[in-house]
Specification:
Oligomer: single chain
Helix content: 10-25%
Structural class: alpha+beta
Shape: elongated
Radius of gyration: 19 Å
Number of helices: 1
Distance between the termini: 15 Å
Number of strands: 5
Number of domains: 2
Largest sheet: 3 strands, antiparallel
Length: about 100
C-alpha cells in the first residue's frame, strides 16, 4: 500500500511505498529547482513537500436493492493505518473494514 507521498507544483502528487522514496524524490525536486535558480528562486518552490498519508477517500454503499445492485453510494475519509484507540473519534473507520 502506497502510504507516502511527495508533492511539487509542476510534478504533481506522487505516491510511494516507503518514506525514503518520497523524501528522495522531494530532495531531487529541490535540487533541480536550486540548479535552475540562476538569479532567483521560483515563487512556489516552498510547496515541495513529502509525508505520510493518514486518510484517503473510500466509497461506501449506503443502500442496495434486493438484487444487490447499488442504489446510493457515498464517500468518506478512512484511516489507512491503525491508530491508537485514544486517537480515533467515534464513528471513524479504517480502510478495509
Amino acid at each position: 500500500m502506497e502510504k507516502w507521498f511527495a508533492y511539487h507544483s509542476e510534478e504533481g502528487f506522487q505516491r510511494f511505498e516507503t518514506a525514503d522514496e518520497a523524501r528522495e524524490v522531494a530532495h531531487a525536486w529541490l535540487d533541480a529547482e536550486r540548479d535552475e535558480a540562476v538569479d532567483e528562486w521560483r515563487d512556489d518552490v516552498d510547496e515541495i513537500c513529502w509525508g505520510e498519508i493518514h486518510q484517503q477517500v473510500e466509497e461506501i454503499v449506503k443502500q442496495r436493492r434486493m438484487d444487490g445492485d447499488v442504489i446510493i453510494t457515498d464517500y468518506e475519509l478512512a484511516y489507512k493505518k491503525p491508530l491508537p484507540t485514544w486517537g480515533v473519534r467515534s464513528g471513524s473507520k479504517q480502510i478495509g473494514e
